[in-house]
Structure formats: structure tokens, C-alpha cells
Amino acid sequence: MIASLTAEKLACTRGSRRLFEGLSFRVTAGQALALEGANGAGKTSLLRLVAGFLPQVSGRVFLTENGNEIAEPEGRGRFIGWLGHHDALKASFTVAEQLAFFGKLHGRTGDLPALLEQVGLTRQAALPCRYLSAGQRRRLALARLLLTARPLWLLDEPFAALDITGKALVAHLIALHCGQGGMVIAATHEPLGLNNETLRVGNESLNL
Amino acid sequence: MSPFSALLARDLRLTVREGGGVGLALGFFALVATLVPLGVGPDMVVLAKVGAGILWVGAALAALLSLDRLFQADYEDGSLDLIALSPLSLEGAAAAKMLAHWLATGLPLTLLSPLLSVFFDLPAPATAMLAASLLLGTPAVSAAGAIGASLTLSLRRGGLILPLIVLPLLTPAVIFGTGMVVEVQTGLATGALGFLAAFSLVTVLLSPFVAAMAVRLNLAG
Lengths: 208, 221
Known about the structure:
- Chain A is of the alpha/beta class.
- Chain A has one domain: P-loop containing nucleotide triphosphate hydrolases (Rossmann fold, 3-Layer(aba) Sandwich), CATH 3.40.50.300.
- Chain A has seven helices and nine strands, in the order E-E-E-H-E-E-H-E-H-H-H-E-H-E-E-H.
- Chain B is mainly alpha-helical.
- Chain B is built from ten helices and no strands.
- Chains A and B meet through helix 3 of A and helix 1 and helix 5 of B.
């Protein structure tokens, strides 16, 4: 089990623009961290940096498992549940097929009908993804996140496009995940509804 | 089902459902093989001489048609992020995509070639050798193609620049693939089989690593 995620003195540069620097934080098992900041402040970049997609220009990020540090980006990736702002769905695949594929890709054989019921997509199971609304696509992405069962969730705008019950569902799932010893880092403009830490991203003084 | 076969099966299913794969490549190949004899004229000696070369170039071009979406579609809709975080390595993912591309283009093109060699009056031994050379050489087309597709995955009009990257890489395959047929026709041993096999092997073995590297660079961009 992953005990913590530590980031020390991270910096991120996109093009010629320094988004943030000297950013340090730590998330331990059962904790959620909300990332706040203006549009373009670098929340998504920070998530991609933690996920190992963006190269670390300075500082370091590592997971701790049984006292061992896992700092190598692709080693870290094996513990990450990703909810990006693209939903990663294929228009011609049905909801059930889409979920089944990601289950096989991750070697997980979860109870797919139960997962679909949990996110409220039971009736859409046989529907091709091209007919889903933005909120339904988001719900399917949530079902995938649950199916892959990774300890560290990186969520980019998890509440986007969702209705009131959908937002409540996300808050519930985050609370449940933390309750089971998982970790969550979410870039969001809305409160997570938890007793969580908040990190402000972006260096306004640099951007001015 | 392993992660590798899961991705392979998904890519094949997408090819079938979203079109633009098998039918397009076969149709293009058949049209090239039909039009060239009409342009060259009915001189059977000339046609038999150029047949293998025309069919090889036609097959290589046909295989490139569906290549630009190999990584691009997954990059644009975010699937590539999830594949990168999955238990399957990016090298494994690139290999699965290459294999899916070959099964959907290289293999059907090889199977169609005996039918099209009739247009060039190729005798049976030359026709059989052409099919054998395509079977051996088209995996290299998919492999070199995967390198080009991974390099251009974030370009909006990547499909246009892709042939400019991939076709020069395919020069050895076209030379030695055609060479195998010419050997049968002239009876002169040139060792084309050995060269084509070596080229195919090296390209197929190296391509997943090069493609994975290019995907990583693009995900970081």
C-alpha cells in the first residue's frame, strides 16, 4: 500500500512561461488535496507532472511504499488513477465495451454492471458512447477510475459537466476512496466537501 | 486476456467499426494495379518486368493510408494518457498497435496480391514469390509506419508529412522485396531474401522502442 506522495520544490515551465516554482506538498494515505488557482495557473500541468507525463525540470516527486521511495515516472504511473479533462471514450464503442476494454488493459475483472449502477449508467450500458451527454461521459470515466482501483487518484476538474447528483456522487466517491486509505489530488474550483488540505497553484507575482 | 491482447483486440475492432482501414487499403492497392497497365499499355513483356516493383510500391502506399490515426486518435481523446499509466508499457502498446495495423493492412494486401499480379502477366512462381516477399516485408512497413505515426501524432495535419518520413525508410523493403521476384524471373541469385528478412527483423524489433520514445516526448509536450 502506498503511504504517501511527496513533492519537493517543484517547478514547471511551459514554453517561456514559468507557471510555478518551489512548490512542495505531501499527501498521506487517506488524505485529499484540492488544487486551487486561476485558469492557466498550472493545475493541470502539476497533475501531469505528478503523473510522470511532464519532465521534472527541478525538485522531485516520489511515492513511499513500505519505506521504499518510488521516484521513477513510469513506476509511479502504476499507482495512479487518472481522470483527465478528456474522457478517453471511443464513439463506436458501447458503454459496457468501453469499460470492459479498460478492465482488460489493467488486468481487472471488476463487477462491471455494479460499477455502471454505481455511476448511474445501467440503462446506457448498450449505448454507443457517441450518444452520451457530456455528464454521462464523465460518469463513465468515473466508473473506469473505480475499476482500475489505483491508490492515488489524480482528478482534473472532476465536477465538470456533472449535474447535482453527479457532483454529490464524485464527492461521495472521493470520501469513500480516502476512507479506504487512498489518496486524492483534485484540481477543482468547487469545494471537495471534505476536511481536505488546499494548495494554491500559480505564482501570481511571476505572472504579473 | 493480457493487456497486450486487450489493446490489439480493441484496435482491430476500432478499425472494423470506424472504417478507413482494410477496405481503403485494398481498394487503393487494386486501383493502382488496374491503372498502371492501362497507362503503360498492353505490352506483356514490359508489364511482367515492372509488375513486381509496381505492386510493391502500391502495397507500401496503400498501407500508409490509415497510418496517421495509429496514435493520433488515442492522443486526441486522452486514451493515450490512460494507456501510458496502464500495466502495459508504451513499448508494448506500440507493438500491439503495429501488429493491429499489419493484421488490418499488410496481411490483407499480401493475400490480395496474387489476384492483382494477373494484370502484369506474372507467372505462377513469380506470383508466389511476390506474395512471400510481401508477407516478409509488410511487417517492416507497419513498423516503420509506427515510427512516423508516433513522431507526428500531435500534428494537426500529420497525415500529410507522414509519407515523407516513412517512405524513405521503406527503400530497402521495396528494393529487396522486388529483388526476390526478379530473382525468380531471371534466375540470378542476388540474396534479396536475406536482406529483406534482416531489414524486416531489425525494423520490427527496433520500432516499438523508437515509437514509445516519440510518444513519451509528445505526452510531455
